[in-house]
Amino acid sequence: MNRVKALFFLNILFFFAFSSSIKAFEVIRDTEIEEFTNDILKLLLTDNDIEAKDINVYFINSKQVNAFVTGGKNIFINTELIIEAEDYREFAAVIAHELAHIIGGHIFRTSEELSNISSKAMPIYLLGILSLITGAAEAGFAGVMVGQAAVSDTFTYYSRTQEAAADQKAVSILCNNMIDASYLSNFLKKLESVGSNTQSKSQNYRATHPLPQDRVNWIQLALSSNEKCNHEIDKELEIRFNLIKAKLFGFTHSYNETKAVYNLNNDQGLYANAVSSYLNGEHDKAIEYLEILIKKNNISPFFKEIMSEIYFAKQDYEEAIYFQRNAINHLGFENDLYTMMLGNYLLSSEKKEKIKDSIYYLKKSVQLNRMNAYSWYLLARAYAQIDEISLANYATAERYFLIGERSLSFDFALKAIKGVKKNTPEWYRTYDLIEILKKEVSTNTN
Fold this sequence. Notes:
It is globular, with a radius of gyration of 23 Å. It is mainly α. The longest helix is centred in the last third of the chain and has 21 residues, at about 425-445. It has a 5-stranded mixed beta sheet. Among the domains are: about 5-235, no CATH class; about 385-445, no CATH class. A hairpin with a 6-residue loop joins strand 1 (about 10-15) and strand 2. Helix content is about 60%, strand content about 5%.
């Protein structure tokens, strides 16, 4: 399978097109990374009025080592930064620094304000996964929904005063929450060795922050006033972080790179090579590696989720459904991506008895996250397959509303309201859509 096509399997959700060029960046979603980061946020925010659920963290699929904050409480972290971090403490240190900007009210903006990113960011999923697998690339890519938020690659950099304050606050956050803050300076020292030939000056961490050596000095000064900061490593967090790094490496680096960096002698190596082999079309080899991991840790939902994706790619829907159900059972919390994927697998089997199950999980997915446009798309498909055309029109109206196609959303809402059962949640929401869009569509057509 073409690697570019296969990369869509990393649950890519958001896509932002730069207004100044055709260059774009992809913000990916992955449940394992999100859950780990949320646990780090909870740890760092123990003694703060801000809660982890108040912070929006977006992971950019990029080889640039960078992290930054936009207006509001939005943290962006490049995937390569996670890969370059030596261990979870360096990753946590970067998060602590960005949290310090939020706590301190240091607003880092692009020239187009991103504080309302949740309303501008439109979910993007691969709508034609099967089409891509079978080589029907045009049909597959035609099914991708793209939501655009105009942003600029010209950043307003933090002032030296803000940066120094954020570093010192980060040290306090880390020390007070049992994480050795010296790992922030360790990470910054590592950045010194990053050559200018490997990173674009306009995008890397050094370009959007003051010189690492200056910051190391500020951090050392702050550490001198925190005598009890030499905390021990949390071995469980480190194990989780190393697995995440391995997975990300397998997804974002070439097959040969992955084989060169990760051998098969440990869990990280098996995980990285399972992902890389999967993307390289070597499905049986990927399954072999994952079976070893699952045998060693049968309760991990993340190994099983990857296994379900592989079986889905092989068009073995029964196995895909089995492993995805298993993953959900072991996840321990409800998640819109996991329920969406199960709904998709049930729907793709094209067995009538599974369509109602599919609708159940897809409805749960949008209940957990109404911004999940791909779940709305799948829900429309499922309703259409059981001849619930009005409900299919309603789900389609929701999808078009999310991706900014307001005129189409209005048209489908008008179709839906004629047949959706009155006084149901779907009827009330359809009516709301019509009222919301009526004035907007009328204004645009005049």
